[in-house]
């Protein structure tokens, strides 16, 4: 019977390794070595590296710091800004490396793995719907008056965020993230 | 003496293969087989796969369909929209695969290859400056009245575009690109 502790340590280790070096560059051997478990034990728990990676992306999306912003005193737009700020702080704390694992896996694998494509789509979609719900609350509260569809805006804002993290990996400074905050929260969500 | 034709065929083939399957998944062997040249000839022309990839990204940025929109009758914002439309058409024509090679290489390699990071930064920066110049012309022409820094807007619009192509690879439809056109050209650049 698979021991859950070995499985968990593989998932946790893979989350770190896939995020750090990417999917193709990270072998099952890389993961089992880093996890300190026998390579053979991997296949007691996962049929393939792909199956593991899909589970890792789902876990990454579910545990994102995003969900930790729950202060009921915040207005909807202030909450949204705080959510992006906490994500930005994690990224800056990593020295402008790694970016968003959902974005990384999507860029690398969406054309080549149907299970990963479906997981990336689901994770992005869930996140965009979360943003859209906040935008609807902002409109309800009179904070958002721009005559735009909150669903379209929610998806667009998420795309702009993913693009900002991508450029930040290349420039290795805060400029892309600050461009995002200025443009989204001053000029777009008005 | 290296034959230029072999070098050119390696660069052209690598552009297609890196775009199609990514950097790590594409070996020197993959490229030389696809190019129909002896594997040994590769190292007469390039020190490494990395050196080739950096040259490929520079070539991709320089030859992008973007530069083909030169109709002098277009207003600055109409020109910008036409430039993104021609890029979108290429992407849709590829069946929503591949995305932007600059974005792909940035996601995959910016943390791991200093020469690639520098090339991706330079390519994105050149493109963002091109957009900013058009936005300044739009302001000059009275087409753009939003009180935002054209340089910030130019970088942000490019990031949003890269993010839209990323999501489009996952959803495999036009929605992300249309979200981009609606939000950028109706609600942001006003």
UniProtKB/TrEMBL annotation, chains A, B:
Matching PROSITE patterns: HTH_TETR_2
DNA-binding region: 27-46
Domain HTH tetR-type: 4-64
Transmembrane segments: none
Keywords: DNA-binding, Transcription, Transcription regulation
InterPro entries: Homeodomain-like_sf, HTH_TetR, Tet_transcr_reg_TetR-rel_C_sf, TetR_C
Record flagged with keyword rRNA processing: no
GO molecular function: DNA binding
Keyword flag Transcription regulation: yes
Name the UniProt record assigns to this protein: TetR/AcrR family transcriptional repressor of nem operon
Organism (species): Kutzneria kofuensis
